[in-house]
Amino acid sequence: MEENKLSGEDSLQLIQQMIQSSRDEHQENGDGWLLWGWLLFSASVISCIMGYMGYGRYVGEVWLGMLVVGLIAYAFNWRSKKARTNRVQTYMQGLLNKIQSAFFISLLAILAGSYLGNHSFSFGYFYILYAFWMFIHGSAIRFKPLIVGAWVNWAAALGIFLATDFRHDMMISALAVLIGYLIPGYMLRSEFRKKMQSTDRIAA
Q1: Is residue 135 part of a domain?
Q2: Total structural domains in the chain?
Q3: Which residues lie below 8 Å from residue 22, measured CB to CB, with a gap of 6+?
Q4: How far apart are CA 92 and CA 75, in angstroms?
Q5: What is the pLDDT along the chain (204 residues), one digit of tens a residue?
Q6: Is residue 43 assigned to a domain?
Q7: Domain range for 36
Q8: In a domain, 22, yes or no
């Protein structure tokens, strides 16, 4: 009976191993961050160019189009991923999925409020929401580039609130997305590929 009892040190080590196992099971290839990153970056750059060319009145359609494309691509990717895997979802995976759902619901609520309210609207609110999601997600998977990206996007939100020219808003937007979405997305993809190569070598 005494031999089957775990010491305090053994119990702590077991808990740490379980946490690490949960982290390892939540592997990301960065596709989601790259998808939304390129869509947001493209929308920002196109909007900035349109502003300088005198077509600023069509910017809303650009962003709405990017959102529709993103949601369709995300839904298709989610269904494909679900069809490919039958793994039991870990607690952290389930929690992050719920937070992600809350993020998209909040994003759609902000969009609906901006259109239905029939008043001028600042893009800064979007970047506060983006930063919140990056900070939570980056902290959960202990990925510092996403946490740095969150602080960049919070700073970008302030910059957008203070900017008086919509074209400057779009320049700030493009820079924030580049640092907050695209760079961490490519870093996640690189890290994922290294893990897959390591796993393949061990399996071989």
Answers
A1: yes
A2: 1
A3: 90, 91, 92
A4: 21
A5: 444 454 555 555 545 554 444 444 445 677 888 888 899 899 999 999 998 998 888 888 888 888 788 878 777 765 665 555 545 556 666 777 777 777 777 777 776 666 655 545 567 888 888 888 888 888 888 889 999 999 999 999 889 888 888 889 899 999 999 998 899 999 988 888 887 777 666 655
A6: yes
A7: 30-203
A8: no
